[in-house]
Amino acid sequence: MDQDKLTKEFYAQIKYPGPNSLITYQWAQRLKPYIPSKEFLLLDAGCGAGRHTAGFLDLYPNCNAICLDISKPSLQLAEALFKEKGFSNRVKILNQSFLDEISINNLADCAISIGALHHSTDIIKSINNIKNALKPGGILGMMFYSKKGHYKRYMLREAISILGLNKDLESAKVAVKSFNKKYGSFFDKTIRTIYQDIRDNVSRKVKQILKIRSYGYPTHISISDAMFADAYLTPVDEAYDTFEIKKILEKADLEVLEFVTLGNINKKRLPDTWVNSWEKLGFWEKVRVMELIDPLPKSWSIICKKKAK
Ligand SMILES: C[S@@+](CC[C@H](N)C(=O)[O-])C[C@H]1O[C@@H](n2cnc3c(N)ncnc32)[C@H](O)[C@@H]1O
């Protein structure tokens, strides 16, 4: 069976990110500087259970949205979330692949595709379909895996695949859990990672206690089966480095506005004696240096613009 069909079948059985996910405001906030003050239309491509869309709808009463995903069960979770929050009349649901043309009545002002494009068999075609559903000058926020941020997960994926321990969810869970028991302890982490983990957990707990608009997942849920399957069992799972990202964005003819996390241009992060040489570099070399020196590499979160022709 081809990879595309396998991906469709895989996600048809998955409700991502699973029950009890919270509304996520992260992307709604990231796109704030680029969002029109008048009424606007958001397209969420690969929306899963709609946590990012819900963040936009809650934060911006002038936002309407289209939620697109190949996974019907995930869209059903999204519909339930929108109903509970009173957003249903502002959302349209589209059960289709972004590998197919997206035909909508009005072009969107902005689009997001979070954690979805790295599962596509043809990322350029997928981005182009999303871009074609955007107005000229429209904004596109994307998150996909970075090679550096995910190399440990890829090593583990490959090891359990060679061992034949990834045949089903339960055996993969046992395999990963026992690996983590042996190598995921306090002693296998750097001080910097431990500090970051503590900071993230404390901040999530404080937000939960103070009922501050939080993002992510309730702290009592470490990882759902859907999130686990998404990390270890997906048929297609690609990661990219700076120059691969450059190629993708050039082929898709998108203008980069911002690297939000990995690759973020911030010369304060450079060693002092590097600054003069770094300043003489072109844009993509600057980004690559930022990627290379990041001590806690993450996924790529990139904000782009569809060129106004
Ligand atoms: C990791 S989940 C992310 C969901 C959501 N964006 C979030 O951050 O919670 C990836 C989502 O992409 C969807 N997806 C994967 N391939 C797709 C495709 N070709 N077309 C549309 N959606 C797709 C999956 O069904 C899944 O819901």
Please name the defining characteristics of this protein.
Rossmann fold, 309 residues, binds S-adenosylmethionine, 7 strands, single chain, seven-stranded mixed β-sheet, alpha/beta
Describe the secondary-structure layout.
Blueprint lengths: L2 H10 L13 H5 L9 E6 L5 H9 L3 E7 L2 H14 L5 E5 L12 E7 L8 H10 L1 E11 L2 H16 L6 H15 L7 H19 L15 H8 L9 H10 L2 E6 L15 H5 L3 H11 L6 E7 L3
Parallel strand pairs: 1-2, 1-4, 2-3, 4-5
Antiparallel strand pairs: 5-7, 6-7
Bound molecules: S-adenosylmethionine (SAM).
Describe the protein's architecture and organization:
This protein is of the alpha/beta class and 309 residues long. The chain is 43% helix and 16% strand. The chain has a single domain (1-309), classed as Rossmann fold (3-Layer(aba) Sandwich), CATH 3.40.50. A seven-stranded mixed sheet has the order 3-2-1-4-5-7-6, sandwiched between helices. The N and C termini lie far apart (40 Å). Residues 7, 11, 16-17, 46-48, 51-52, 69-71, 74, 97-99, 114-116, 119-120, 230 line the site of S-adenosylmethionine (SAM).
If you consult CATH, what is the topology?
Rossmann fold
Q: Unreliable segments (pLDDT under 50, ≥5 consecutive)?
A: 215-222
Helix content: 40-55%
Radius of gyration: 20 Å
Series of secondary-structure elements, N-terminal to C-terminal: HHEHEHEEHEHHHHHEHHE
Tell me the count of domains: 1
Q: How many β-strands, per DSSP?
A: 7
- Count the DSSP helices: 12
Given the helix and strand composition, which structural class is it?
alpha/beta
CATH architecture heading: 3-Layer(aba) Sandwich
